[in-house]
Amino acid sequence: MCFTLLDPRGQIDAMSSVSFSKKTTLCASIRLLIVVATMASSLLSPVEALSVDELFAPDKLLDVQITLKDSDWNTARREKRSMAQALGEERRHGKPESPFHYVPAKVTINGEVFDSVGIRKKGFIGSLDDERPSLKVKFNFSDPDATLGGMTQLTLNNNKQDGALVSQTMTYALFNAAGLVAPRTSYAKVSVNGTPLGIYTNVEPAKGQLVTRGFGSANGTLFEGTIVDFFDGWATGFEHKFGPEDAGRERIQALIEVLDGPNESLVAAIEEIIDLDRYLKFWAIESLIGFWDGYSGNQNNFFVYHHPQTNKLHFLPWGADSVFTSRGMFDRGGPQAVKARGRLSSRLYEIPAIQERYRRVMLGLLESNWNEEALLEETERIEALVGDDLHARQGGFKEALERTREFFASRRGQIVEELKDGAPEIRGGASEPMYFSKVGKIEGEISGRWFSKAPSAASEIGDANVRVMLDGEEVEFKEIGVHAVMGRFGFRGPGQPNINIVGERASDGERVTLVLMIDGDSFQPSGEAMISVGGMMRQGEGFGFGPGGMSPIDGKIQIVEASQEEGAPVKAKVSANIMKMVGGFFGRGGGGGPPRRGGPGGRGSRRPGRPE
After folding, report:
1. Cα–Cα distances in Å, from 165 out to 8, 66, 400, 404, 534?
2. Three-class SS of residue 166?
3. What are the CB-based long-range contacts (under 8 Å, 24+) for 395-401?
4. In this predicted structure, what is the pLDDT of residue 332?
5. How far is Cα 414 from Cα 288, in angstroms, rounded to an integer?
């Protein structure tokens, strides 16, 4: 079977539209084009046995073998990024400092050896993993001029949030086939020092080569959007990647100011700053594939490119490992056919003419680009390609893939049903992106024991000589205890040791739990060293980050004694900040509630997002 979502050479015409409905009778010609392109690449770059086209060949499985010192690998894979670090208030005002650092390594790709490269861990929150980390491979780590076909790095994603292993490859293929700009991908089996880590997705880095391929040159400015949006005070929150920074930020600020303006002139003003036709298609594809963690669904995982020739902003997808699902993790109901938590989408959807225009774009995608037969065939091809090289922790692959196939089979019906009587109405709108601000501190010494199961009388076990401050006042406890247990918070993966400080607040008798989450390899005496620790403070029994819910903890801990043997003593010193969430969160205020028909959908119908 020949799957033709992408041009075989990985080239796309940014203004063209390629249909899924095209049959595969051109397979022989396509194979010839691949051979010709590969030969041409070899003639142009005779010193490189591995071409960029081979690196992103969709029908080949790369063999990536990484070799480095065990000590360097352990350092790199265990580096952390807590939620509080990732979403701290300072990220609104400039490029956040990465917690990850390159270490020297040798990488062999399909037998070709690259000495003196650098590798580092990558990931935001959900994809972080110590055993199978996502990785960046930096070719110019030692030699600033070293590249692979002009590329300075590889991006290897561990697919931790994509059990079906198809989300990134098929998502970016959909964007490319619709005439938009998105990365190329391939699959890789990755090993480190001889230990197989399973199947990774090799994603084309968001750098000059991708932008040049999509827009003709890379003379413009690229920004990354991570839990950021076009609100006043957030222009500096877009992370500058390359290009003339001032010119790009001026256009972002201009869009922010336009979105603060009246509905009467909104569309015309927006069209001066973005390519609206292309944005509507970008937005509709995000909604069609159920990309709940993208820009329109969660103000996250996107790039913005300022095109210097047109002086307009263009959107590129990124981080598409949470797609092909009818309801995302943070969805609160609402229509399937339109996600509008992103402020640009939300404001545009207040205009009835844009609602209808969006509806036509979505129906056009279903007609021209959504081919269930081709999509299902592609899942079968991928299953055959990667199925023999899965890691033990990718054991849910077949079940996840079957759920994805069910999504493909049912998605058209879901969308058409919602659009048959006109554009569905959404409730709410965009709210300021979330971030964490310091509101308190925990400091002192703790001692308890390790339990295989959490004890019922937790506040009566162990001892906590700690001071807990919240909003400038010290929290007094009637009783407070300490125990350690294996716990888990977040996405797929094994648990980690938790030291739980459990108390009964003197003022109201409310149960307060402070959970210190420690990496398993670090759960041992640390000597004089203070190691990083994250965690959560929970007031009461609720699960959530709103008032009375959970607050992130971020700081340092010195472990004096620790063991995972039943009844073993656990002692430590802790100094950590307690944070609170500011702004919107997890879809609140952005398209929640059941769909309603009719009504103009104007500004007066919006319910402002509630800060949590």
Report:
1. 21, 21, 8, 10, 29
2. coil
3. 396/163, 397/163, 397/164, 397/165, 399/163, 400/162, 400/163, 400/164, 400/165, 401/163, 401/164, 401/165, 401/166
4. 63
5. 10
| C-alpha to C-alpha distance for 225 and 302, rounded to whole angstroms | 5
Q: What is the pLDDT of residues 515-563, one digit of tens each?
A: 999 988 889 999 988 988 988 999 876 555 555 567 889 999 999 999 9
User: Helix or strand or coil: residue 130?
Assistant: coil
The identity of residue 408, as a single letter, is F
Q: What is the DSSP letter of 424?
A: P
State how far Cα 161 lies from the chain centre.
9
Contact 436, 87 (CB under 8 A): yes
**What are the tens digits of pLDDT across the range 227-281?**
999 999 999 999 999 999 999 999 999 999 999 999 999 999 999 999 999 999 9
CA atoms 126, 129, 134, 137: torsion sign: positive
Domain count, the chain: 1
Tell me, yes or no, whether 510 lies in a domain: yes
Is residue 64 within 8 Å of residue 109, measured between CB atoms?
Answer: yes
Residue 525: CB atoms within 10 A of its CB come to 13
For strand 103-109 and strand 61-67, is the pairing parallel, antiparallel, or unpaired?
Answer: antiparallel
Please say whether the dihedral angle defined by the alpha carbons of residues 203, 208, 209 and 215, taken in this order, is positive or negative. Answer: positive
Reported as a single tens digit per residue, the pLDDT across 127-141 is 788 899 999 999 999
Q: What is the dihedral of CA 7, 10, 11, 17, to 10 degrees?
A: 40
CB under 8 Å to 612, separation ≥6 — which residues? 434, 544, 545, 546, 547, 581, 583, 584, 585, 588
514 strand-pairing partners? 501, 537
Q: Is the pLDDT of residue 161 over 80?
A: yes
Calculate the CA dihedral of residues 471, 477, 481, 486 and round it to 10 degrees.
Answer: -30
Kindly report, residue by residue over 440-459, the tens digit of the pLDDT.
Answer: 999 999 999 999 998 989 99
Looking up tokens 């780590």 gives 141
Q: How many angstroms separate the first and last alpha carbons of the chain?
A: 50
Distance of alpha carbon 265 from alpha carbon 257, whole angstroms: 12
Residue 447 in any domain: the answer is: yes
Q: For residues 580 and 439, is the Cβ–Cβ distance under 8 A? A: yes
| Residue 53 covered by a domain | no
Read off the tokens for 192.
């480190």
Domain that holds residue 538: 436-582
pLDDT at position 544 is 54
* Torsion angle of the four alpha carbons 282, 287, 290, 294, in this order, in degrees rounded to the nearest 10: 50
Kindly calculate the radius of gyration of the chain based on its CA atoms and give it in whole angstroms: 25
Q: What is the pLDDT of residue 273?
A: 98
Residue type, 173: A
Q: What is the pLDDT of residue 123?
A: 81
| Side chain identity at residue 83, one-letter code | M
Q: Evaluate whether residue 540 is within a structural domain.
A: yes
Sign of CA dihedral 545, 550, 551, 556: negative
